[in-house]
């Protein structure tokens, strides 16, 4: 059913549930799973001062750890996982990467770390759903 699946993660609970669903879909359909982590430059400016640079480096390391975990979980299931850790506006980076890999399905968490209201969809997820033009599974 799917050949290429993309999942976005920020390490939040909903993102982790999205990873589980994306891995299940990839395993069932024999798809390649792409996982992306975006250091949000809207929330965390690009490094210019030492304290900002330290925070950005910490976020990159967190992203690397999250993506490594997705890769390990995929390996346990026999799923090929390709990862990308980048900087930018998350919704734009997710859309651009989905287009680049010609994703058959994009899996996203209902909301991420930056969203505080529990009864509303997160802004990144909302923007991706509205602008992607590809199937999206919101978990």
Task: Give a short synopsis of this structure.
Helices cover 47% and strands 21% of the residues.
SSE map:
Elements: E1 4-8, H1 13-29, E2 32-40, H2 50-77, E3 81-88, H3 90-101, E4 105-108, H4 123-131, E5 136-138
Helix pairs in contact: 3-4
Architecture overview:
By secondary structure, this protein is of the alpha/beta class. It has one domain (4-138): Rossmann fold. The chain has helices at 13-29, 50-77, 90-101, 123-131; strands spanning 4-8, 32-40, 81-88, 105-108, 136-138. Strands 3-2-1-4-5 form a five-stranded parallel β-sheet, sandwiched between helices. It is globular, with a radius of gyration of 14 Å. The two termini are 19 Å apart. The model has no long low-confidence stretch (mean pLDDT 90).
Helix content: 40-55%
Q: Which structural class best describes the helix and strand composition?
A: alpha/beta
> What is the strand content?
15-25%
How many helices does DSSP assign?
4
Rg over C-alpha atoms, rounded to the nearest angstrom: 14 Å
Number of separate strands: 5
Tally the structural domains: 1
Return residue spans where pLDDT drops below 50 for at least 5 consecutive residues: none
Characteristic key phrases:
single chain; globular; 139 residues; Rossmann fold; alpha/beta
């Amino acid at each position: 059913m799917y050949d290429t699946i993309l999942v976005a993660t920020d390490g939040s609970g909903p993102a982790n549930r999205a990873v589980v669903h994306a891995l299940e879909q990839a395993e069932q359909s024999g798809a390649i799973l792409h996982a992306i982590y975006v250091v949000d430059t809207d929330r965390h400016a690009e490094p210019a001062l030492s304290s900002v640079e330290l925070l950005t480096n910490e976020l990159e390391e967190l992203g690397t750890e999250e993506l490594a975990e997705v890769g390990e979980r995929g390996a346990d299931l026999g799923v090929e996982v390709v990862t990308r850790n980048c900087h930018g506006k998350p919704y734009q980076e997710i859309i651009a990467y989905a287009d680049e890999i010609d994703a058959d399905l994009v899996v996203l968490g209902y909301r991420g770390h930056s969203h505080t209201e529990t009864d509303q969809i997160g802004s990144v997820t909302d923007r991706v759903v509205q602008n992607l033009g590809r199937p999206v599974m919101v978990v």
